[in-house]
Write a structure and sequence with these properties.
With 72 residues, the protein is mainly alpha-helical. It is built from 4 helices and 2 strands. A two-stranded antiparallel ribbon has the order 1-2. β1 and β2 form a beta hairpin. α2 crosses α3. The two termini are 22 Å apart.
Length: 72
């Protein structure tokens, strides 16, 4: 799944537009959309998007034994 698809699904599930999410993140809808298309968001930016959208974001490796290595 691309970053663009991932964020669009988030918006659908939250009942907001991508433009509205961009504004919540203090970005212009055009710049936000271009960054989505380039898969240009870093992990810290993804965490910020989640925070501004009022949800959590977890980035982790899940080992075969179930242990997790999460980005902080």
């Amino acid at each position: 799944m691309t970053t663009e698809e991932f964020i669009k699904i988030l918006c659908v599930r939250l009942g907001i537009s991508v433009s509205e999410l961009a504004r919540k993140c203090d970005k212009s809808p055009q710049a936000f959309s271009q960054k989505m298309k380039r898969d240009g968001f870093t992990m810290p930016e993804m965490k910020e998007i989640a925070e501004k959208a009022g949800c959590g974001f977890v980035s982790a490796f899940i080992l075969p034994n179930g242990d997790r290595v999460e980005m902080q």
